[in-house]
Amino acid sequence: MADGAIPTTGGKSRIAGYVLSGLAVAFMMFDGGIKLVPIQAVTDSMQEFGFPTTDGFARGLGGLLLVCTALYVYRRTSVLGAILLTAYLGGAVVTQLRAGTPIFSHLLFGVYLGLFVWGGLYLRDGRIRALIPFDAADR
User: Fold this and answer.
1) Vertex 57, ends 56 and 62: CA angle to 5°?
2) What is the tens place of the pLDDT at every residue in 36-81?
């Protein structure tokens, strides 16, 4: 590969990247959407974790998540969106840690989603592969 060239993505890698990203985006849109409506399950879980139970707070979190997700979906801002989603998911992990929830099903769920976000972006975007080369051929 020439210096400064961005590695290209094979068809199967790109498809796998879009599948991983699509799964993460689908969950984030669902989660943000139910926070905008604030259904009773959202209010109950926010109270359980010690957050304010006002509709405005839930809507603010939902709107923030949807904006971060939209930035991730748009190719020009996908890296910024991934960084912001990572921060959001980090807050979710800390919240689960404080609550003492089960490790693999609840606590690490934000980590799993983060892996989907970054794994999908890595597989579909040559800029990320150029930045973080796992393969000796990409260096």
Assistant:
1) 95
2) 997 999 999 999 999 999 999 999 999 999 999 999 999 999 999 9
In three-state secondary structure terms, 3 is coil
Number of domains within the chain: 1
Side chain identity, residue 46: M
Query: Is residue 127 a contact partner of residue 82, using CB atoms and an 8 Å limit?
Result: no
Q: Which of 68, 71, 99, 61 is nearest to 85 (CA)?
A: 68
For residue 101, the enclosing domain spans 11-126
pTM: 0.87
Q: What is the DSSP string of 73-138?
A: HSGGGHHHHHHHHHHHHHHHHHHHHHHT--IIIIITHHHHHHHHHHHHHHHH-HHHHHHS--SGGG
Q: What is the pLDDT of residues 14-25, one digit of tens each?
A: 999 999 999 999
Residue 27 CB partners (closer than 8 Å, separation 6+): 113
Write the burial class of residue 8 (CB in 10 Å: 0-12 exposed, 13-18 middle, 19+ buried): exposed
Q: Which residue has the tokens 């590969």?
A: 1
